[in-house]
């Protein structure tokens, strides 16, 4: 538990393109933002799913890649000094007695703010569960999708499945402390960095671990305690003793904790109005792919529009007495000062 | 027009007139074939359009590109005839193609 809670005007859940642009619109209205994202970097789907792919429908950019758009947005919001918290999943959202909101992330850090903007997109990226029978029965006891504490793996019979960097990194990190180690992958080619693959092959040559070419078939054990895993290989089926299993099959998007925040949902999306993009809980807004309203299009440009209107409503909540004067960034000296382009 | 048949895991067959130039995944989605999701819209970044190409068609559909092979690591129950259907483009050559839909997508 962190001792201090963070206080700010606005907390934005999700640092995808829409969450990032919200910082800009809120910043023009002098609102300070903290952003949280489960991923280790900004950009949401653009950075995680298609960084190199061209996007053709961002107004004013005939073509721009997902990563370029993310980089540009970061540059655009930099003058407002947003604070980013990566590798953090917002797990809870509650209204306090003083009318403000309290959010807590998966590391126990609390954030207190007047306005919450949910820009959680397709939801949280979560590890894929392989379709092996009964795997759910072992999750959290013998089957893990990430290594939180290396100690949990000490002196265990560990099997790691996959061929990417996560799989290979954990092979190398866990090798010194486990009782036995098996890497299972469906082919002899790896997506992981060649250096890691080279080091893994050395460990195999030294007899410190095994590499099995095949696919997981069945789990054996009882009461959440795994004892072995059958793997189908070219030569038939092999039953390998395993007490800890780490499958790495990439990420998929699930709504995740957002579903439990008491917001009205429509087919797993947050229902909002189209004037302020506010959810059923006043002060909690939802913009981008996560929201739903009649005619909604899951496009980046729609999310940008939603961010602009949301910011106006957020400002009225935080400074109810301030008269809002509509201004253009082209001509307003005040806005240009905030952007740091005019002294 | 090119005829493509999708066979669900339970044996249900869907015979569809596919449009040349579109992908096999798009053909499935447009016609509501169960079991093909296409979460990433054909960007080869999700592996939820996994199919098995019937052996006699493997030669015509060709082999996966290295990018597709990488993505197949995220699919389940991968076999030598596994393909990501968003990476197979419909053409006259493929008239009569039969693909099997796996029991579960990634
Ligand atoms: C292959 C592909 C191509 C596309 N092409 C286009 C295109 O050409 N044009 C276009 O306009 N759109 C396109 N899109 C759609 C576009 O990417 C989305 O509309 C856009 O990313 C939505 O932005 P967002 O910020 O709402 O959500 P996202 O980009 O999904 O970001 C949401 C973020 O919130 C985080 N998050 C979720 N829950 C939590 C939580 N509880 N705690 C902390 N963080 C959380 C997630 O980790 C994620 O990073 C494409 C999408 C894909 C997959
Ligand atoms: S649709 Fe996503 S990989 Fe084919």
Secondary structure class of chain A reads alpha/beta
Radius of gyration of chain A: 24 Å
Number of helices of chain A: 8
Low-confidence stretches of chain A: none
Would you report the number of β strands of chain B? 5
Major sheet summary line of chain B: 5 strands, mixed
Helix fraction of chain A, binned, reads 10-25%
Structure summary, number of beta strands of chain A: 20
Radius of gyration of chain B: 12 Å
- Shape of chain B from CA axes? globular
Determine the CATH topology of the largest domain in chain A: FAD/NAD(P)-binding domain
The CATH homologous superfamily of chain B is termed Beta-grasp domain
Contiguous uncertain segments of 5+ residues of chain B? none
Mean pLDDT of chain A: 94
Are any ligands bound, and if so which? Answer: flavin-adenine dinucleotide, FE2/S2 (inorganic) cluster
Map the helices and strands.
The complex is a heterodimer of chains A (343) and B (106).
Chain A: E1 6-13, H1 17-28, E2 33-36, H2 44-48, E3 54-55, E4 64-65, H3 66-77, E5 83-85, E6 90-95, E7 101-105, E8 110-118, E9 124-127, H4 135-138, E10 157-161, H5 165-174, E11 180-185, H6 194-205, E12 210-222, E13 225-233, E14 236-241, E15 244-247, E16 251-254, E17 265-266, E18 269-271, E19 284-286, E20 291-292, H7 300-318, H8 333-339
Parallel strand pairs in A: 1-2, 1-8, 2-5, 8-19, 10-11, 10-15, 11-12, 18-20
Antiparallel strand pairs in A: 3-4, 6-7, 7-8, 9-16, 12-13, 13-14, 17-18
Helix pairs in contact in A: 1-3, 1-7, 5-6
Chain B: E1 2-7, E2 13-18, H1 24-30, E3 50-53, H2 58-61, H3 66-72, E4 82-84, E5 97-100
What does this structure look like?
The complex is a heterodimer of chains A (343) and B (106). Chain A is an alpha/beta fold and 343 residues long. Chain A has two domains: 5-126 and 252-338, FAD/NAD(P)-binding domain, CATH 3.50.50.60; 129-245, FAD/NAD(P)-binding domain, CATH 3.50.50. Chain A is 24% helix and 29% strand. Chain A has eight helices and 20 strands. In chain A, a hairpin with a 5-residue loop joins strand 6 and strand 7. The model of chain A has no long low-confidence stretch (mean pLDDT 94). Chain B is an alpha+beta fold and 106 residues long. Chain B has a single domain, classed as Beta-grasp domain (Ubiquitin-like (UB roll)), CATH 3.10.20.30. Chain B is 17% helix and 22% strand. Chain B has helices at residues 24-30, 58-61, 66-72; strands at residues 2-7, 13-18, 50-53, 82-84, 97-100. In chain B, strand 1 and strand 2 form a beta hairpin. The radius of gyration of chain B is 12 Å and the shape is globular. The mean pLDDT of chain B is 94. The interface between A and B is medium-sized, with 19 and 17 residues. The complex binds flavin-adenine dinucleotide and FE2/S2 (inorganic) cluster. FE2/S2 (inorganic) cluster binds next to loops of chain B.
